[in-house]
Amino acid sequence: MTKSSHSQLELIQPAVPADTDAILAILDRANQLALENSGEPMWTAMTYVHDQLRSQIESGDCFVMKDEQDTITSLIVITQQDTLWEDDGTDEQALYFHKLMKDPEIAPKGSGFPLIAFAAREAIRRGRTYLRCDTKTSMIQLIEYYRRLGFATKRSMTYPTTDQAGVLLEAKPEEVLQRIAKLF
């Protein structure tokens, strides 16, 4: 990784309850931007997503990247499991990331790379073989973004809460770090 990306990794920290309003505002702006750009929001059950994020902040699963002025620019949620996806016997080998998002008004281009690198390093630190994420299959650009980082389809399903098709993506964390180093 480049020197600048190392300094960005140092700006990633666990979210604290005082960050909640700023995080929810980023979520709402990112969701609105997705709706404007693709005609489809990233998340539909916003009250549920807000409550889920509050819980993930409290449990220490939400991490934020801040700029030099201590303003949150982007975030990621990292969990040990994903209960939406049925365990196929490999869940204990994986670390999951969710809600990768940036503030569309202030986050610099490429700000997702340091957060995904952070998740990959966490997977390695925790002894996990795989790094996983999921998204709706209609989010083609997002899926291509993840594929450039080494993610491949693990399996698909229909999300029970929205009846939309989803895809679970998986990569070796070491490969993700290598690809990010080349791209970033």
Q: Tell me the overall shape.
A: globular
Report the biggest beta sheet as strand number plus sense, adding barrel if it closes.
7 strands, mixed
- The helix tally amounts to 6
Q: Strands of the largest sheet, in order across it?
A: 1-2-3-4-5-7-6
Gap between N and C termini: 7 Å
Structural class: alpha+beta
Radius of gyration: 15 Å
Question: If you average the pLDDT, what whole number results?
Answer: 87
Task: List low-pLDDT spans.
Answer: 1-6
Could you give the topology of this structure?
Blueprint: H1 3-10, E1 12-14, H2 20-38, H3 46-59, E2 62-66, E3 72-79, E4 94-102, H4 112-125, E5 130-136, H5 140-148, E6 152-158, E7 165-171, H6 173-183
Parallel strand pairs: 4-5
Antiparallel strand pairs: 1-2, 2-3, 3-4, 5-7, 6-7
Report what the structure shows.
- The structure is a single chain.
- Helix 1 (3-10) crosses helix 4 (112-125), helix 2 (20-38) crosses helix 3 (46-59) and helix 4 (112-125) runs antiparallel to helix 6 (173-183).
- The radius of gyration is 15 Å and the shape is globular.
- Strand 2 (62-66) and strand 3 (72-79) form a beta hairpin.
- The longest helix is centred in the first third of the chain and has 19 residues, at 20-38.
- Residues 1-6 have low confidence and may be disordered.
- Helices cover 41% and strands 25% of the residues.
- The protein has helices at residues 3-10, 20-38, 46-59, 112-125, 140-148, 173-183, and strands at 12-14, 62-66, 72-79, 94-102, 130-136, 152-158, 165-171.
- The chain has 184 residues and is an alpha+beta fold.
- Strands 1-2-3-4-5-7-6 form a seven-stranded mixed sheet, with helices on both faces.
